[in-house]
Amino acid sequence: MNREIENQIEKILAEMTVQEKIGQLNQQAEPRSDEEITLCKQKIRNGEVGSIILTASSTAGNEKKSPINEELLDELQHVAVEESRSHVPLLYGRDVIHGHQTVYPIPLACACAFNEELLKKSYRNIAREAAAQSVHWTFSPMLDLSRDPRWGRIIEGPGEDPYVGAVMARACVEGLQGEELSDEDSLLACAKHYIGYGASEGGRDYQRTEITDYSLYNYYLPAFRAAVSAGVATVMSSFNDISGQPVTSSRKYLTDILRGQLGFEGFVVSDWGSVHHLLNFGVARDRADCAALALNAGVDMDMAVGCYAENLEQLLKEGRVSRERLDEAVRRILRVKLLKGLFAHPYPKKRRVDRGGHLAMAKELAVESMVLLKNERVLPLAKDRKIALLGPFAKERRSLLGNWTVDYCLEDVKCFQEALEEKIGREHLLVSADESGMFDDSVPKAGMADVIVLALGESWERTGERRCISELSLSADQIALLKRMRTLGKPVVGVFFCGRPMAMDGLAEYLDAILYAWHAGTKTADAVCDLLFGDRVPSGKTAVTFPRRTGHIPLYYNVTPSGSTINGYYGEEPFPCYLDSAASPAYPFGYGLSYTMFRYGAPQASPQALSLAALVAGEMFHISVEITNIGEYDGKETVQLYIHDRIASRMRPLRELKAWRKLSVGCGQTAAAEFELGYAQLGFYTEEGNYLVEPGCFDIYVGENCLTENRLSIEVR
Ligand code: GLC
Q1: To test ligand 1's pocket by mutation, which of 95, 137, 195, 305 has the most ligand atoms within 8 angstroms of CB?
Q2: Per-residue confidence (pLDDT) for residue 435, from 0 to 100
Q3: Whether the model pTM is above 0.85
């Protein structure tokens, strides 16, 4: 508690009218036309606007680039600070999700880097670039756990694992908010979408979700718990309902759990229109109902649709919302504005950012995010070979940036062909004459090449909000190209520029090597070329399962045991899960190849057993494993540690990732991965939200992915 700030809040609040208090809860969309700007200035002068979201669209991620109008923002802030009665500065929010002018890999790709420090530094750079353009607040990180790649927004989040989500939450919040919120290079972060949006049924956006409290606490909440622990300034309420209760009108989720159990102290902003959507859910008769339900549930700020602005004054008079609740919401918003330093410094100073350094880091993160899924002794390629480059992503630029980026500099983006020409020279490349890279005349050229490289993928416009698909596959013409190239008897390398995992049956068998490049940002093409030719060695690991078929979804590694069969992910005894296909993943969670090989020693535990009391007192199990690089390249290996609580009062997942160490190991060298497992790692939450560690045996798996059998057991007595 900052006493000075609290005193300032009370002083400002005491002088505010009811209309001005309501104005603080109102976020409106950025005015674009002269008429909108004039009206917006008048509303600001009247104290009716507390924040402006810097986009005019409710699906900002899908729009063409829309530059920030810094001059207008400066004008509007002067109106708020100097011409309004309360002089409260405006808060400017924008979707700075995985980059600003410099674009980093989509968050799902970042999760595959398993590199917390690099992620945190990257998000620090992202904050620097956006803050230098007058942005105060970003609606990031998106922390929605998802097991369904049909959902277009899986690209924005951490994938299927709660622990990866928690690590990403911490790295992104700390990177964005820095040491001090008031630092000019810091952005206010926003943990979204609280909560459960990633469980939308059928992978169809905005659909209902069915999440038990047990699943909520153990799968969906950990990332938000970590964001709150990292001091996230704001949280965004999600579009979805959970088992018939819209989150945006749920006091249970937005107040009892978020504040009562997680201890969140910032403010909650609705998603765009999620207050108004309560009408569509059939839980509100009119917009006044919507406003009352949302405010009383715990939504402090209404994004962009004016439900609060239109109705709160009347709702106060009718006693349907209380003055105390209004003041509480205003206090939370004023506290964040004061912590951000907006009152002290409402106008940003012009300053330059180190774009060169940021681009270098974006490339580093892209290299570490990419996953080598298959390599039948084809990669790395020699630079003096004849390479036929074909496929629709050979000359593609915009899609390499992915969805949810609105401030990118396309002129910084090389296409794959350009990067290849730079890497090995035009004379080593056979390329299609046509822009699409798909034409027949390429086939004879491909026959003259030593290696065929196919630039495959999905458009950025097939991912993101309202961009769900029913078949996890490439376009028919790409599959036809794959099959045709296979007939030429040459090594065929597939580079996948995708936002989501594809179902790999019908794709992988036609390829000798697969590099999953994702939509990895501004430096995607350079990163791919460094990896293809061995200037860098792949180290990415899948943070989401790659299924064989779309019909296998949901398919995720941290699944609980089945009754009469193993489960499919980990085997199909005594009978197959499907009559028409294997149920195991094409590539499991945590999977990724290198150009070198790592041999794992047996894991060691010390001690082998601890009493529950000792664990509670802070004693830990020390787990260690040695890995030896037995290949021909220096490389990085993400050593993963999973637990399986064999017997518990609730069913526990067959594997739970609890830690990882990404180690750099030179050729012929041996390194040790050291872990500590204690009370915080060995328990689970009950459906009431109580954390429990129960005595019993735990299998500890330490290996290269979730299917490792490199294990030992420990006991809690
Ligand atoms: C969108 C998204 C949310 C985004 C917000 C503002 O509908 O759901 O993630 O931050 O609106 O653009």
Answers
A1: 95
A2: 65
A3: yes
Q: How far, in Å, is the centroid of ligand 1 from the Cα of 42?
A: 26
State the distance from the centre of ligand 1 to the C-alpha of 644, rounded, in angstroms.
37
Ligand 1 atom with least separation from CA of 156: 9
Distance separating the N- and C-terminal Cα atoms of the chain: 41
Q: Provide mean pLDDT across the span 20-30.
A: 97
Count Cβ neighbours within 10 Å for each residue of 493-530 and write b for 16 or more, e otherwise: bbbbbbbbbbbbbebbebbbbbbbbbbbbbbbbbbbbb
3-state secondary structure of 224: helix
Q: Please name which of 262, 198, 267 lies closest in space to residue 230, comparing C-alpha atoms.
A: 262
- Cα 271 to ligand 1 centroid, rounded to whole Å: 6
Q: How confident is the model at residue 436 (pLDDT cuts 50, 70, 90)?
A: low
Q: What pLDDT sits at residue 351?
A: 86
Question: Cα 536 from chain centroid?
Answer: 25
What's the CA-to-centroid distance between 360 and ligand 1, angstroms?
29
Strand partners, 716: 610, 696
Indicate which atom in ligand 1 lies nearest the CA of residue 95: 10
Backbone φ and ψ for 419, nearest 5 degrees, come out as -65, -35
Phi/psi of residue 422, nearest 5 degrees: -65, -35
Residue (of 194, 267, 272, 199) closest to 226 by Cα position: 194
| Residues within a 6 A CB radius of ligand 1 | 53, 55, 58-60, 95, 139, 192, 271-272, 465
**Burial of 484 by CB count in 10 Å (0-12 exposed, 13-18 middle, 19+ buried)?**
middle
Q: At what angle do helices 222-229 and 162-177 cross, to 10 degrees?
A: 30
Q: Are 273 and 305 in contact (CB under 8 A)?
A: yes
Between CA 404 and CA 34 the distance in angstroms is 27
User: Atom 3 in ligand 1: which residue has the minimum CA distance?
Assistant: 271
Looking at the chain, the whole-number percentage of residues with pLDDT higher than 90 is: 95
Nearest-angstrom CA–CA distance, 467 and 465: 5
Distance 58 CA to ligand 1 centre (A): 6
Residue identified by tokens 């298959």 is: 374
Q: Which of 237, 259, 390 is nearest to 328 (CA)?
A: 259
Place of tokens 């697969």: 514
Across 482-505, average pLDDT:
96
Lowest-pLDDT choice from 66-70, 315-319, 335-339, 453-457? 66-70
Q: Which atom of ligand 1 is nearest to the CA of 304?
A: 6
Phi-psi region of 9 (alpha: psi -120 to 50; beta: other; left: phi over 0): alpha
Distances 189 to 68, 170, 554, 665 between C-alpha atoms, Å = 19, 11, 30, 35
Query: 303: burial class by Cβ within 10 Å (0-12, 13-18, 19+)?
Result: buried
Number of neighbouring beta carbons within 10 Å of residue 347: 12
Task: Report the pLDDT averaged over residues 349-357.
Answer: 91
Q: Residue 627: is its pLDDT beyond 80?
A: yes
Contact call for residues 542 and 657 (beta carbons, < 8 A): no
Output the pLDDT for position 442: 61
* 8 A C-beta contact, residue 134 and residue 67: no
- Ligand 1 centroid – CA 239 distance (Å): 10
Determine which residue's CA is closest to atom 11 belonging to ligand 1: 272
- Cα 160 to Cα 114, 154, 376: the distances in Å are 14, 9, 28
